[in-house]
From TrEMBL:
ATP binds at A31, G32, A33, G34, T35, G36, K37, T38. Has both ATPase and helicase activities. Unwinds DNA duplexes with 3' to 5' polarity with respect to the bound strand and initiates unwinding most effectively when a single-stranded region is present. Involved in the post-incision events of nucleotide excision repair and methyl-directed mismatch repair. Belongs to the helicase family. UvrD subfamily. One of its GO terms (cellular component) is DNA helicase complex. This is DNA 3'-5' helicase. GO terms for biological process: recombinational repair; response to radiation. Keywords: ATP-binding, DNA-binding, Helicase, Hydrolase, Isomerase, Nucleotide-binding.
């Protein structure tokens, strides 16, 4: 009763309060976005602590990101005051908690407590050695491919001997299982674990040592899991083992099947369905009141997700009398106009007194960020990129820039050093050391030193060959600078160096995104006059990235926006192929489409007061301008909840345009949008657009930007001056 009066319970609705107070026994909170699931979890922890049911160290709480863990810690501290001298709960991601447990029992899984955690690069390097040692052609069976397979197995909690035959044979020339086992053995000798091990080794520990498992079952009297819909099999097994101890079936999972967006990484939404089976007598509480978004936003999101078939089904309502603003649907000519318009809108809100911290741009693919970063640098608008490096800081972009820098400036040692052995050419640390020695002695740049060394006997013939081939390439590329459009040159450099191919062969989950980023890099170069001009721009952008500004717009992918909320959310790039993403459709068909739609639902439901969707008529794909088709998800939005704007800088234009149905279709789509299903329009657009497609890039370098853009629709007379 003392707890009932507790201030932290004030303001919760009856269902939320029930979920907070049902501390004993298994509980599933299944509820839509913004209904207070995370708030319930946090309050529940406060309640357990404040009512003396457990010490902090007896509580295990799993969040999806480290950021969420930090926020939850702060909130708990605020809820129960600073009186928690006994420390904090075990609160973190599955990985963070896994590593903590493993370090305490390292010797039981053949590690020392100071084991290192390998990053992806280390992992690949190690796998390469293993593949080569097994006499398997690494070209045909790339290490990255094996790494991806092993990650997949680990996500499913599969030790080497449990990998299904078919899958084991399909990897590493039939030796998938052996090499996986060998890899695990090598990790032990190195006293190392990879990311997946943080969970699977924990699983092994629990299975092999019931006494250790029992200790944790006893310790964790209360377990809480946020974003339960995105747990993978290994995580699920891990939770189940921990929760099945007699004394500790106090497990509370909160989730939303409509927000399951990590299927491609092994998450299984079925875990939700299994919950009641695994924990008989489990209580299920549904929360239906949304506290986050105003009426139109919520209705738009609900209308959208209703188009999915595989759903558990939930209702959502909001009690705010306020319907608020409708979801804005805007179109722009191309992605730079989209960035310009969104930038203008942000500045408008800022002038009205809105904080940048309350605004976010949520993109489907990370390559989309570049345009916004560029624009914001120009505007002097503070921004931060969440959940990943900024565009020009990405690994593949830095590599590509290094190639270009070394092409423009053969004395750029840092650039040369970065890529001399990327992709692998056998020019490892030993060779580099030789080069450095020679360069120092002769007081010359590395490349010049290399040119001298290849004429001597100091290097083994094989290395000499590899190095001189690389030098010859750089010479050729440099010589082409004055004669070749720089975007063509950049493509050539990335192709001929084998850099693009390196990622094409890569089977890891990030590889397709990296290739997209590389294409975006070439795209963006087209906006600059020359290669040196572009490189200068990049160094300026990089330099402007000072310390963390206190007030800044967030830019992030839809995937990393899960669980977050902002007053204003911009959702650019709602075009077929980008969103829904073509890859998801190609690889997973209907299921892929539904996961994409859930992602759209996640995006819309991040918004408290304002949501603005954008699509463009033209996007550069693979370096070619293509007219695009508005996303079919736009058709899913209830008409009453959206406000469709005329294309800003082309007002009037769309309707007056006498030619080019494809342009008409994408510029002023809404006459036809509601009449024609998205896929039909896509088809129509493809049919009419294709024969007239040309590359904007060529036109750009010949006639200048505006002309180039207009050539996209294929109509030259549509050109200059009309804007
Ligand atoms: P998501 O599915 O997006 O993770 P969620 O269900 O976890 O959402 P929360 O983030 O916990 O939802 O809550 C959404 C917003 O609603 C937060 O700003 C939260 O503070 C607020 N909220 C939740 N419950 C209440 C309540 N009873 N009274 C007032 N505000 C509330
Ligand atoms: Mg949440």
């Amino acid at each position: 009763l003392a707890a009932r009066a507790a201030p932290y319970l004030a303001g919760l609705n009856p269902e939320q309060q029930e979920a907070v107070e049902a501390t004993e026994g298994p509980l599933l909170v299944l509820a839509g976005a913004g209904t207070g699931k995370t708030r319930v979890l946090t309050t529940r922890i406060a309640h357990i602590l404040a009512s003396g049911r457990a010490y902090p160290s007896q509580i295990l709480a799993v969040t999806f990101t480290n950021k969420a863990a930090r926020e939850m810690k702060e909130r708990i501290a605020r809820l129960i005051g600073e009186g928690m001298a006994e420390g904090m709960p075990w609160l973190g991601t599955f990985h963070a908690i896994g590593v903590r447990i493993l370090r305490r029992h390292a010797e039981l899984v053949d590690l020392r407590s100071d084991f290192t955690i390998l990053d992806t690069d280390d992992q690949i390097r190690l796998l390469k050695q293993i593949i080569q040692a097994a006499n398997i052609d690494e070209k045909r069976w790339p290490a990255r491919q094996l790494a991806a397979a092993i990650d997949g197995w680990k996500n499913r909690g599969l030790a080497p001997d449990k990998v299904p035959d078919g899958e084991a044979y399909a990897a590493a020339n039939g030796k998938g299982r052996e090499l996986y086992a060998e890899y695990q053995a090598r990790l032990k000798t190195l006293n190392a674990a990879d990311f997946g091990d943080l969970l699977t080794e924990c699983l092994r520990l629990f299975r092999e040592r019931p006494d250790v498992l029992a200790e944790y079952q006893k310790r964790f009297r209360y377990m809480l899991v946020d974003e339960y819909q995105d747990t993978n099999v290994a995580q699920y097994l891990w939770l189940r083992l921990l929760a099945q101890g007699k004394e500790s079936r106090n497990i509370c999972c909160v989730g939303d099947d409509d927000q399951s967006i990590y299927g491609w990484r092994g998450a299984e939404v079925d875990n939700i369905l299994r919950f009641e089976r695994d924990f008989p007598g489990a209580k299920v509480i549904r929360l239906e009141r949304n506290y986050r978004s105003t009426g139109h936003i919520l209705a738009a999101a609900s209308g959208l997700i209703a188009h999915n078939e595989g759903r558990l089904g939930k209702t959502l309502f909001t009690e705010t009398a306020e319907l608020g603003e409708k979801v804005a649907v805007n179109s722009a000519w191309d992605s730079s106009e989209e960035a310009r318009a969104i930038g203008d809108d942000i500045e408008r809100l800022q002038r009205q007194g809105h904080a940048l911290n309350d605004m976010a741009i949520l993109v489907r693919a990370s390559f989309q960020m570049r345009e916004f970063e560029d624009r914001f640098v120009t505007l002097g608008l503070n921004y931060r990129v969440i959940g990943g490096p900024r565009f020009f800081e990405r690994l593949e972009i830095r590599d590509a820039l290094a190639y270009l820098r070394a092409t423009v400036n053969p004395a750029d040692d840092l650039a040369f050093e970065r890529i001399v052995n990327t992709p692998k050419r056998g020019l490892g640390p030993a060779t580099l050391q030789l080069l450095h020695g020679h360069a120092r002695r002769r007081n010359m740049p590395l490349m010049a030193a290399a040119a001298e060394l290849v004429g001597t006997e100091e290097l083994k013939p094989k290395l000499r060959q590899a190095l001189s081939a690389l030098l010859r390439s750089f010479e050729r590329w440099s010589a082409l600078i004055p004669h070749t459009p720089h975007t063509d040159l950049a493509e050539m450099v990335l192709e001929e160096s084998g850099y693009t191919e390196m990622w094409q062969l890569d089977r890891s989950a990030e590889a397709p995104g990296r290739l997209e980023n590389l294409k975006e890099l070439v795209n963006t170069m087209g906006e600059y006059e020359s290669l040196p001009g572009f490189l200068e721009h990049v160094s300026l952008v990089m330099d402007s990235e000072g310390g963390e500004a206190s007030d800044a717009v967030s830019i992030m992918t839809l995937h990393s926006a899960k669980g977050l909320e902002f007053d204003t959310v911009y959702l650019p790039g709602w075009e077929e192929g980008l969103f829904p993403h073509q890859r998801a459709l190609d690889e997973n068909g209907r299921a892929g489409l539904e996961e994409e739609r859930r992602l759209a639902y996640v995006g819309l439901t991040r918004a408290r007061r304002r949501a603005a969707i954008w699509f463009v008529s033209n996007r550069r794909v693979h370096g070619l301008w293509q007219s695009t088709v508005p996303s079919r998800f736009l058709d899913d939005l209830p008409e009453a909840d959206v406000e469709i704007s005329e294309p800003a800088s082309y007002g009037g234009y769309g309707t007056a345009m006498p030619y080019g149905m494809s342009r008409f279709d994408t510029m002023a789509p809404f006459g036809s949008t509601y009449a024609t299903p998205g896929w039909q329009r896509a088809q129509a657009n493809r049919d009419t657009a294709d024969p007239r497609k040309r590359t904007g890039r060529q036109a750009l370098t010949i006639e200048g930007e505006l002309v180039a853009k207009s050539v996209i629709g294929g109509e030259a007379r549509f050109a200059a001056g009309e804007r």
